[in-house]
Write a structure and sequence with these properties.
The complex is a heterodimer of chains A (about 290) and B (about 750). Chain A is of the alpha+beta class and about 290 residues long. Chain A has 12 helices and 14 strands. The chains are: A alpha+beta (about 290), B alpha+beta (about 750). Bound molecules: flavin-adenine dinucleotide.
């Protein structure tokens, strides 16, 4: 690991200014569970590391029934799943927070870091897309919002411009009769990178028998996380049935454009997208019905 | 349900009990001194520049920029090793061996695997060393690599060593080849045997390159003093082995090298080869300072010694009643960059569980562009057992015969002549099979979706040299000094054997592992030999102490030694009941009656008892994902005598767990250019605790006649059966016969697609 300078700004303004002037010489540090690993492996160099954990806005974790969830970009996973309200209202988010790494990693790793790292396999990203998450960004030209599904642009690349940081993620309050779930496939039971991952959210009608809407997002089957809109939209207005779920899973499979690598083959991944779309939809439906 | 059973035949006072381990407190409090804890004043840090190519000719190395980098104290390449300045004529018959050993440490002409050391440097700290490494310029001519054992055997394969010719049963081949050795054993008449069979089955099997996965990476600190003395502090299974290798490569007398073995964080056979020691030594000589090197995990994967991948063809003939009539196997294993795969052990182990009249086995030791393989727990045997025990399961299926009944019918026993010609002494395979058959687990009803598999495994166990010295302190506590590095609790188990022999308490024996200057030659801790062979040395040393204690009593009582006996820790006059010393009483008198007593023994025993294991495993396989979960696992093994049953159970469980990893997920994954893609614990998937059930154990005790307490080795047989047992269970659960390891979820899905049901 090469030596680097380290700064720890305490305001967004200060962070933005530092980043804007350092350009591509700087890297942002949240939990560091991606960044430090990459730096030690020589995959990234960063003459300047900017630790954003000292900025209050990045540590916010607040829920309001009207505004929904504001999740500071640096909040570590354990704080999310240990927060009783958040755990109750957003089980679909907790699924992902609970999966990332093991207990030590969860003590540091943030959802913001997971999204910004923009790995095709990032577990939180499909979960947040399914939950209609919005990324709140601050930069030299003020603030802007980016839909989570538009945030990742290529493996390891995101939509942030020079000097910009992700401040927080907003997730709307769940609609009535809605439920969400994230599942991934790994060959072991812990400590692995998703061979595929599927995040879904569904809204049912009051009877719990019909879909009002659904969102489906996929991990590890394309250069970026995939928002499988056709698959989700195919459920809108349909009765909850095995057939409808099967059809949605086939559309999700069609949206998957994976590669073969040491973690899985194209055929295996597409097949698993079908399996996990069905499994995760069924769990989301159960949750929507209050199960 | 009893999860750990010991089926004991004989009871002793100390042997067979479960006392605390002497190294326990230091280990749990973090005080134990491992290699990386060595911090001598002024230590420099070394880093190794490694080849990015699996196969390349080194055209030039320019170290000038690195040498000029602030903080760098010395740079070495192969030119700094003695081999570079010795001619073929001077070396004669030694040439090839020295070239291989020297080049393995620092490549002189070719890089033979990704990670092959090309140069190394010492700097004021590790960060400076790492930065400077990037300044060494190496010009390579990249050559076509080969990383598959069967590909490497082909006539048109890229040649790893231009001058290597096959040793074919003692005859040297007429042209260069990657096949270093072909070896064959046969017994009886296999044509006749197969002709007599009612059923003959034959299949091919492959296994992947796997790593031992010890937690502690390789590390070394070397200090070459100005008086010529070279001291090496390192993590090794064999301090004398390191001493020999380093002295050999550096062309200095062994006595000029002292190796201080530090606590070891796992080895499993992978910490026998010396990787960093000679490099640090030469850097130390150049700088006059101690030099320390520590591998990263990636370096461990890419440049230490994994176990070979294998290709195997097995053919077995049986009568309708299950009796085996003939067996045949061809086993090819890749040794990596330099010859020395365990193919020869594999062919000896392949059918060692069975008593068959007619057999033929052929083994091929093949070089290719992978790191030079090293020993890994029962080297060669697990691969062979995967093939043989899988085929036997298929045969049992065809014959509709219970797999344990089949094995009992054909089991090797005392007097069975094995394929390499050795006749088995008293062995415990039958007893292990019976214990498995009678176990709860084997009798338990199979729930829907569960597949059950069984398999056996063999490891001969080893003897070889060990030395022990014992001194009697004036308080009656015995210091037990040995050269065997303690990986699996041998300080305790050897102290127990000493205490048993002396008739004193375990707590009154204080074991210490010492450096190579402080004890006689002791072979590695490996081959499941230490509790047996170093145990024997301790027993003999204790006998030496006993006879000296008797002489001392004779002197004190002014009587004849023949009038005195040593019984259960008491030195007593045979006829005069008044004359009696406890061990401690006599010890207290030593200072005033002639001085201290030390006993000593060096042994090279041949009475090792072969080890057998039988495993039962239950699995479920998710039909949608192909993922296998091991739901129940029982390991049965003959320990001869379990000196410390907890450590025997630990060995059985550890072997089973490594076998489960080998079976399901572990593999070196190579890209098209021959580079390992997964040199991290993230992608080299060893099982975590969440992937494992509790491993139940049954220790069977069939005494080894070659040891006073019946001890056999126990460290290795337990890694042999799991792969086949799991493959057999997966077949039972899914109907898919998996003939390639690892049995990954993807492979199970593919098998389903091929068989037309997904
Ligand atoms: C052992 C281990 C296991 C893991 N297991 C998983 C797993 O199961 N699933 C999974 O998805 N990931 C896993 N990871 C990866 C990693 O832990 C996650 O991606 C984690 O969420 C990253 O968060 P972090 O806070 O540590 O990010 P950091 O490493 O601090 O940052 C990640 C990247 O995002 C950038 N960044 C961070 N915050 C901001 C911000 N506010 N604005 C702009 N850019 C920012 C950084 O510059 C960096 O490029 C694992 C990692 C390890 C080491």
């Amino acid at each position: 690991m090469e030596p680097f300078d380290f700064v720890s700004p305490t305001t967004i303004e200060e962070a933005v200014k530092t980043l804007a002037s350092a350009g591509d010489q700087a890297r942002i540090l949240a939990g560091g569970t991606d960044l430090l690993v990459q730096m030690r492996a020589g995959r990234r160099t960063a003459p300047l590391v900017v630790d954003i954990k000292g900025i209050p806005e990045l540590n916010v974790l607040s829920y309001d029934a009207s505004k929904g969830l504001t999740l500071g970009a640096a909040v570590p996973c354990y704080k999310i799943y240990e927060d009783e309200t958040v755990a109750k209202v957003y089980p679909g988010l907790i699924d992902a927070a609970f999966l990332i790494g093991g207990i030590q990693i969860q003590g540091r790793a943030s959802i913001g870091g997971n999204i910004c790292n923009a790995a095709p396999s990032g577990d939180a990203i499909p979960a947040v897309i399914a939950l209609r998450g919005v990324c709140n960004v601050a930069g030299p030209n003020g603030t802007r919002e980016i839909l989570c599904e538009d945030f990742c642009t290529a493996p390891g690349q995101n939509a942030l411009k020079n000097g910009e940081i992700l401040v927080s993620i907003s997730i709307p309050a769940p609609q009535a009769n809605s439920g969400a779930n994230y599942l991934r496939f790994i060959p072991r039971n812990e400590m692995d990178i998703a061979v595929v991952g599927v995040g879904t959210s569904v809204q049912l009608d009051a009877s719990g028998q019909n879909f009002v809407s659904a969102r489906i997002a996929l991990a590890s089957v394309a250069p970026t996380p995939v928002f499988a809109t056709e698959a989700g939209d195919s459920l809108a207005g349909k009765a909850v049935s095995e057939e409808a779920i099967q059809q949605a899973s086939e559309l999700a499979m069609a949206a998957a454009k994976p590669i073969s690598d040491m973690r899985g083959t194209i055929r295996q991944r597409i097949h698993l997208i079908g399996v996990f779309t069905r499994r995760t939809l069924n769990i989301a439906i159960e949750r929507a019905r209050g199960g | 349900m009893i999860s750990n059973q010991v089926l004991s035949e004989v009871e002793f006072n100390v042997v067979g009990k479960r006392p605390l381990r002497p190294d326990g407190v230091d280990k749990v409090t973090g005080r134990a001194q491992y290699g990386d804890d060595t911090n001598l004043t002024g230590t420099l840090r070394a880093k190794v520049l490694r080849s990015p190519h699996p196969h390349a000719r080194i055209k030039s190395i320019d170290t000038s920029k690195a040498e000029a980098f602030p903080g760098v104290r010395a740079v070495v390449t192969a030119k700094d090793l003695p081999f570079a300045s010795l001619s073929k004529d001077e070396l004669g018959g030694e040439y090839t061996a020295l070239k291989y050993a020297s080049d393995h440490m620092l490549a002189s002409d070719k890089a033979l695997f990704k990670g092959h050391p090309i140069a190394a440097l010492a700097a004021v700290n590790a960060h400076v060393a790492e930065s400077a490494l990037a300044l060494i310029q190496v010009e390579y001519e990249v050559l076509k690599p080969v990383v598959d054992v069967r590909e490497a055997m082909k006539d048109d394969a890229p040649l790893i060593h231009e001058d290597l010719r096959t040793n074919d049963m003692g005859e040297t081949g007429d042209k260069p080849s990657n096949i270093a050795t072909h070896m064959s054993y046969s017994t009886g008449d296999i044509d006749k045997g197969f002709a007599e069979a009612d059923l003959v089955m034959e299949n091919e099997y492959t296994t992947a390159t796997v790593h031992q996965g010890y937690i502690e990476p390789h590390n070394t600190t070397a200090f070459w003093n100005s008086d010529g003395q070279l001291n090496i502090w390192t993590s090794t299974q064999g301090s004398f082995q390191v001493r020999g290798t380093v002295a050999g490569v550096l062309r200095i007398p062994v006595s000029q090298v002292k190796v201080i073995p530090m606590e070891i964080g796992g080895g499993f056979g992978g910490k026998i080869t010396a990787y960093l020691d000679a490099i640090c030594a030469v850097l130390s000589k150049k700088t006059g300072a101690p030099v320390k090197a520590l591998m990263t995990r990636t370096e461990v994967f890419e440049a230490s010694g994994p176990a070979p991948a294998s290709w195997m063809r097995v053919k077995i003939g049986v009568k309708n009643n299950g009796k085996m009539t003939a067996v045949e196997a061809e086993i090819a294993m890749d040794a990596g960059a330099y010859p020395g795969s365990p193919a020869m052990q594999a062919i000896v182990c392949a059918f060692a569980c069975y008593d068959v009249e007619n057999g033929k086995v052929d083994g091929y030791d093949v070089v290719d562009n992978k790191p030079k393989t090293a020993a890994y727990r029962a080297p060669g045997s697990p691969q062979a057992a995967f093939a043989v025990e899988s085929l036997i399961d298929e045969i049992c299926g065809e014959l509709k015969m219970d797999p344990i009944d089949f094995r009992l019918l054909n089991a090797a026993k005392e007097g069975t002549r094995r394929i390499e010609g050795l006749v088995a002494r008293r062995i415990g395979l039958v007893e292990c099979l019976e214990a498995a058959r009678d176990h709860d687990h084997y009798k338990a009803k199979l729930d829907e979706g569960i597949g059950r598999g069984v398999a056996c495994g063999y490891w001969p166990n080893r003897g070889f040299q060990s030395s022990v010295v014992m001194t009697v302190n004036y308080d009656g506590v015995v210091s037990l000094i040995m050269g065997s590095v303690d990986i699996g609790g041998t300080r305790a188990s050897i102290a127990q054997q000493a205490a048993e022999t002396l008739g004193i308490a375990y707590e009154d024996v204080k074991p210490t592992v010492v450096d190579t200057d402080s004890i006689g030659y002791t072979f590695i801790t490996g081959g499941s030999r230490t509790a047996f062979a170093t145990g024997l040395a301790a027993i003999n040393a204790a006998e030496d102490v006993k006879s000296q204690m008797v002489s001392r009593a004779a002197k004190i009582w002014d009587t004849d030694e023949d009038d005195i006996e040593y019984v259960a820790g008491i030195v007593q006059h045979k006829s005069d009941e008044e004359l009696k010393f406890t061990f401690k009483d006599l010890a207290r008198q030593l200072a005033t009656t002639g001085g201290s007593i030390s006993g000593r023994a060096s042994v090279d025993p041949t009475g090792e008892g072969n080890g057998y294991a039988v495993h039962i495993v239950d699995v479920t396989v998710d039909p949608d994902t192909g993922k296998t979960d091991v739901t129940r696992f029982t390991a049965v093994q003959d320990a001869g005598k379990a000196v410390h049953p907890s450590y025997v159970e630990g060995q059985m469980q550890g072997g089973a767990v490594q076998g489960i990893g080998w079976a399901l997920n572990e593999e070196y994954f190579f890209d098209d250019s021959g580079k390992m893609m997964n040199p991290t614990f993230l992608d080299y998937r060893m099982p975590t605790s969440l992937d494992l059930p509790m491993i139940d154990t049954v220790i069977v005790e069939v005494a080894n006649p070659g040891h006073p307490y019946g001890v056999r080795g126990v460290g290795e047989a337990s890694i042999v059966p799991p792969m086949a047992a799991i493959g057999n269970a997966v077949h039972a659960a899914t109907g898919h016969r998996m003939r390639s390891l690892p049995i990954t979820p993807g492979r199970i899905l593919e098998a389903g697609w091929e068989n037309g049901r997904s």
